[in-house]
Design brief:
heterodimer; A: about 150 residues; alpha+beta; 3-stranded antiparallel sheet; 5 helices; 3 strands; rod-shaped; B: mainly alpha; 9 helices; about 0% strand
């Protein structure tokens, strides 16, 4: 590691090589560099990190560039509209997708296998009369009134 | 479509074609951005095999969610952001499995980066360069996530503090500080 002078901090030099100093300070430091091998060394040290790292990654990528990433083409059918996009987005989350279809299936089962509505039963017996020969009962349903008469056969 | 008559596809046109789900547009997207994204992914993961998978997933994800692209940072900025997030997710996944910080970084594993000792039997200056490179990569391995991200965006993408700040949603001062400490930490690791 290069030793730099005490006039400028390493943080300052870091900003300098990032071109993040204002022009006045940048120019002042540039002229200082001409007379200070320590600071020049530090600038070069910092710059070298980025350059070597950049070259290293570029080399690694170049060696791996023969791969064909485009061969894994996603299903274009998911791009037709908002509904399709909705289902497409579901496919990214398996658990959400499972939960969604379970909920839909449950609703369908409830609708299809819903028990028939109960028969309308008499809501009230309005009048009932018993005699020896017959019985009369008037019952009222939701829709109408019924009069039922029983005759004794004896 | 005749590709030879269509050498320059404007970004907006590419986006429209992607929204229509055109396979050719997907191929074009991959061809155009594959290397740049791989570089970023590798810079963060330092693992080319994993980087390939990450970037491939990024393209698939981008294609599926192209309708969510708002165009604020441009297509490249959007892809870069997806890649950064994908790399961080990858890193966290491996961290949970105790691999990320448990890969031995000692000299015995240098061959994983650059082959065997025999391969490096080169003249002095080149060997010195190689050793510097190996030490640098091993030092970057030890960088924390937040410092590595900033360093990658600066070194590989050449982004300004302002651009890094917008990409990572952190303050400019934080960028300045993290970048400096990343450099300092790398230099310190290399000199240990």
């Amino acid at each position: 590691m290069t030793r730099h002078c005490s006039k400028y901090t390493e943080k300052f030099i870091s900003q300098y090589i990032d071109n993040e100093l204002d022009s006045a300070r940048s120019m002042e430091f540039s002229s200082h560099l001409g007379n200070c091998p320590g600071c020049t060394g530090k600038v070069n040290d910092f710059k070298r990190l980025s350059i070597v790292f950049n070259n290293h990654t570029a080399t690694q990528v170049a060696q791996a560039s023969s791969l064909d990433m485009a061969k894994k083409f996603p299903n274009p059918g998911k791009h037709n509209g908002p509904v399709a996009r909705f289902f497409g987005s579901l496919s990214d989350h398996l658990y959400i997708k499972l939960a969604f279809f379970t909920a839909v299936a449950s609703l369908l089962i409830l609708i299809v296998f819903q028990p028939p509505p109960p028969q309308l039963s008499p809501s009230a017996i309005v009048k009932s009369l018993d005699t020896n020969a017959s019985s009369v009962m008037i019952i009222e349903t939701l829709k109408e009134k019924h009069t039922i008469i029983w005759f004794s056969e004896t | 479509m005749n590709k030879s008559k269509d050498p320059i596809v404007e970004e907006q046109e590419l986006i429209e074609r992607l929204k229509k789900g055109q396979q050719w547009a997907y191929h074009h997207l991959v061809t155009r951005y594959q290397d740049r994204l791989l570089k970023i992914a590798y810079g963060i993961t330092l693992d080319m095999e994993e980087s390939r998978e990450v970037v491939q997933d990024v393209f698939v994800s981008a294609f599926k969610h192209i309708h969510e692209f708002r165009g604020e940072a441009g297509l490249w900025g959007w892809l870069r952001k997806i890649t950064l997030n994908a790399c961080l997710n990858w890193k966290r996944k491996w961290k949970r499995r105790f691999k990320w910080h448990h890969t031995s970084l000692g000299p015995e594993n240098e061959h994983l980066l650059y082959g065997t000792e025999k391969d490096r039997s080169t003249p002095g200056s080149i060997l010195e360069e190689k050793e510097f490179e190996i030490n640098l990569i091993m030092a970057i391995h030890t960088l924390s996530e937040k410092h590595r991200l900033v360093f990658v965006l600066s070194a590989l993408e050449g982004l300004s503090y302002e651009e890094i700040s917008q990409t990572l949603k952190i303050g400019k001062g934080t960028v300045r500080s993290r970048l400096f400490y990343a450099r300092k930490e790398i230099m310190a690791s290399m000199n240990r």
